[in-house]
TrEMBL record:
Protein name per its UniProtKB record: DUF8173 domain-containing protein
Transmembrane domains' residue ranges: 230-251, 271-293, 299-320, 332-349
Record keyword Transcription regulation present: no
Pfam families named among the record's database cross-references: DUF8173
Domain (DUF8173) ranges: 232-378
Organism placement in taxonomy: Bacteria, Katanobacteria
Keywords: Membrane, Signal, Transmembrane, Transmembrane helix
Organism (species): candidate division WWE3 bacterium
Signal peptide interval: 1-22
């Protein structure tokens, strides 16, 4: 876990070094980091440490990577945590996103959405979530109040919360406790019928979908393993991209959203430019490689081009997330949550048979083209500004008389 914390912090510091104009407080240490109860930080906070205690108030977004994380104070922004054991007993002004082994959220108010991905996950009866709860866990107990929907999957899910809309989950075993009060439908995928307490309230329908039974032959066992491996890859890919995307969205939000804006208004042009860039890159790389003296430049070009291809999905995710939120009339959705929705769609569709390759190609070409178009436009603006300054300087000079 130490290594993970320092890897996370290194990423943060790298972006900090390349974006010096961004004001943020970054802390990296092998020891404990504590924000005391009487401390107020009027800034965004990035921490990588062995353990972290946040008892005070942070007026900004907080990103934490540590083995043990305890949050008892107030974060008036988004809180993103990756840790072994994470305990949150405080108020979060934005969204709360947690990746961990054991996650406990108690006596907390989360103004926006709550996203929990871990081995053992729980929220207590005093916890209030203003928007939706997204869940990915081995075992989960969800109590308290959720203003919108509950979506996700868990091996064992015990639900005793008041849910403002629907519950849609894939589970091994679903239990609705007597405190459960679901204002919409309960839709679940499971081999086992849900255990519904007589005191549980569901305003809509309770619908079970039973997965197809598996023949335990060697062929089907292998197929089952392949499916699980593919599902695991999708989850790993999404979570790793989401973590990198969170950092990129914070430090380079203007660049990412600006490129998404170009993509939104010039989709076909972006696709064409991206396609042409792909056509040009191969011959150019080989030409530099053949010249021998251009080998170093060739590999620099390869690195930069590979980075742009990797970043292209983040530009498209912004646009896809906005489109989905508009189609389903999701209002006041945090930009990070919207980005996460778009990224999840791209990752899932990219793994589908038949359409996966085509969708990935479209994402890469359009995202790459939009970035190149925006870079060219920025270059033209800078050149025009420099020319205007030059003309003003020339006109300001008085003619010399003899």
């Amino acid at each position: 876990m130490k290594r993970f914390a320092f890897v996370l912090t290194s990423i943060l510091l790298l972006f900090t070094a390349s974006s010096a104009f961004v004001a943020a407080k970054v802390v990296s240490t092998e020891n404990n980091v504590t924000v005391s109860a009487d401390e107020v930080i009027d800034d965004d906070l990035f921490i990588g440490a062995e353990s972290v205690d946040i008892d005070g108030t942070v007026n900004g977004d907080v990103f934490v990577g540590a083995g043990m994380v305890d949050v008892l104070g107030t974060v008036n922004g988004n809180l993103v945590v990756a840790g072994g054991t994470v305990n949150v007993t405080g108020n979060i002004g934005g969204a709360l996103v947690v990746f961990g082994g054991t996650i406990n959220v108690s006596d907390s108010e989360v103004k926006n959405s709550l996203l929990l991905f871990g081995g053992d996950v729980s929220t207590d009866s005093q916890t209030v979530v203003g928007n939706s709860l997204v869940l990915g866990a081995g075992n989960a107990r969800i109590d308290g109040t959720v203003g919108n929907s509950v979506v996700g999957g868990s091996g064992l899910l015990s639900l005793g919360a008041e849910v403002g809309k629907d519950v849609t989950v894939g589970v091994g075993q679903l239990t609705l406790n007597k405190a459960a009060n679901v204002k919409g439908d309960v839709v679940y995928v499971s081999d086992q019928e849900a255990d519904v307490d007589s005191g549980a309230l569901v305003s809509g329908d309770v619908t079970q979908t039973i997965p197809e039974s598996h023949n335990k032959s060697a062929e089907n066992t292998f197929r089952d393993f392949s499916r699980r491996a593919a599902a695991g890859y999708v989850v790993w890919s999404f979570l790793s991209l989401l973590l990198v995307g969170a950092v990129l969205m914070y430090f380079g939000r203007a660049m990412v959203e600006g490129t998404a804006g170009v993509l939104e208004h010039n989709l076909l042009k972006s696709l064409l430019v991206g396609f042409l860039a792909m056509l040009v890159f191969g011959p150019l790389f080989l030409a530099l490689l053949i010249t021998v003296i251009g080998i170093q430049l060739a590999f620099i070009l390869l690195t930069v081009f590979g980075l742009l291809v990797f970043l292209s999905k983040f530009f498209v995710a912004i646009l896809v997330g906005r489109w989905i939120c508009n189609v389903f009339s999701f209002k006041n959705v945090n930009y990070f949550v919207s980005f996460g929705i778009g990224l999840l769609v791209i990752v899932v569709v990219g793994t589908m048979p038949y359409v996966g390759f085509a969708s990935t190609a479209l994402v890469v070409l359009s995202g790459l083209g939009a970035f190149l178009l925006r870079s060219y436009e920025s270059y033209r603006n800078v050149s025009k500004s420099a020319d205007n300054v030059g003309h003003e300087d020339m006109s300001a000079k008085e003619p010399t008389t003899y």
